[in-house]
Structure formats: structure tokens, C-alpha cells
Design a protein that fits this description.
The chain has 172 residues and is α/β, with parallel strands linked by helices. The protein has helices at 11-15, 21-28, 34-49, 77-81, 86-95, 108-116, 152-163, and strands at residues 4-6, 56-64, 67-72, 98-103, 123-127, 135-140, 166-171. It binds zinc ion.
């Protein structure tokens, strides 16, 4: 199976253009999304081309306007970025959006940095406000606003879906 060892759809569905009953049910029950299916198949196709690459576990994809985050297993970012970023360039072409790769279970600061690159994350502050849900403030240098990969709204929406936390970008 090339370098994809795990995806939201099964091995049979990776190779075929249709979904088996099991995967179809997962889609219907919103356990996986149409985007997960699409990205799984694109990755599988690329895996046929780049057979020498390390195995990756593709978990899910999260998208917003102009930006898609792909969640992979721990320590797998370098496997998917690959030599000279060829794989990412092809993924970007296939999906027609900017791509960022994040690792499942990484801390907020690391996930934020992986999404916001090439903008730099100075730090993450947690704001507790009596009884309400805490707010995570991802601090970015004001001069790096132009380096953000998408609009602030799009990025915050990806953070929310990714972490299930209330995350805001702040500039200083
Ligand atoms: Zn299937």
C-alpha cells in the first residue's frame, strides 16, 4: 500500500472509486467526511509514485477557505513533507488549496506553529475567565501577518475543529 499504512477508509476503498458498505456507513454517520475520502485517495495515488517514503497514518482532513490541514500520526510530518516538498506541492495541486500538516495529539503550540508556518508563533497564553471556556491566545509578531497561510477567520476555524478549543490569534 505504498506509504499509507492507515487512512479513514479501508484498503479496498483506497484503490476503488466507490465505497464499501462499512466505509459508506462511516460517511453517513459523519465519522468521516467527503474530504477525508478524497484526501485518502489522493494520498494513495501519490503513494504509488513515491514508494520509497516512510509510512504515514492519515487521520483526517480539516478545511477552511483556502487552507486544508491534514492530521497525521506522531512524528510523521517529515514523512509526508518529503524530500524538497514534492509531495506537498502535488497535494496542493490535487486539492487546489494550501496544505498544512499537523500531528495528532501534539500540543497546541506545536500544532499552531505547523499550521501558521511561515509565520512564527511566539507563544500560547491561556486566558481563564470565571466559569467560561478558557481562551487560548496564539501570539504572532505583527510583522508576520502577511505570512499567514489563510485569513485569520479561516485559521481560527481550523484550530477550533482541530482542537475543540477556543483559540484566537493575537498580534503583538
Ligand atoms: Zn471500505
Amino acid at each position: 500500500m505504498g506509504f499509507i499504512t492507515k487512512a479513514p477508509i479501508c484498503g479496498v476503498c483506497l484503490k476503488s472509486g466507490i465505497l464499501c458498505q462499512g466505509c459508506e456507513r462511516k460517511l453517513r454517520e459523519n465519522k468521516i467526511s467527503e474530504l477525508d475520502v478524497k484526501v485518502s485517495r489522493v494520498l494513495f495515488g501519490l503513494a504509488q509514485k513515491y514508494r520509497g517514503m516512510n509510512a504515514i497514518n492519515f487521520k483526517r482532513a480539516i478545511d477552511a477557505v483556502g487552507l486544508t490541514a491534514l492530521v497525521v500520526g506522531r512524528g510523521e510530518i517529515s514523512s509526508i513533507i518529503g524530500k524538497g516538498g514534492k509531495l506537498i506541492r502535488e497535494l496542493t495541486e490535487h486539492l487546489q488549496t494550501k496544505i498544512r500538516i499537523v500531528e495528532e495529539g501534539a500540543d497546541i503550540r506545536k500544532q499552531a506553529q505547523d499550521i501558521l508556518t511561515p509565520a512564527r508563533v511566539l507563544g500560547v497564553n491561556i486566558l481563564y475567565s470565571g466559569g467560561k471556556r478558557e481562551e487560548y491566545r496564539v501570539r504572532i509578531p505583527r510583522t508576520h501577518v502577511r505570512r499567514l497561510p489563510a485569513s485569520i477567520d479561516a485559521i481560527q476555524s481550523i484550530f477550533a475543529k482541530l482542537t475543540d478549543k477556543n483559540i484566537k490569534l493575537v498580534f503583538e
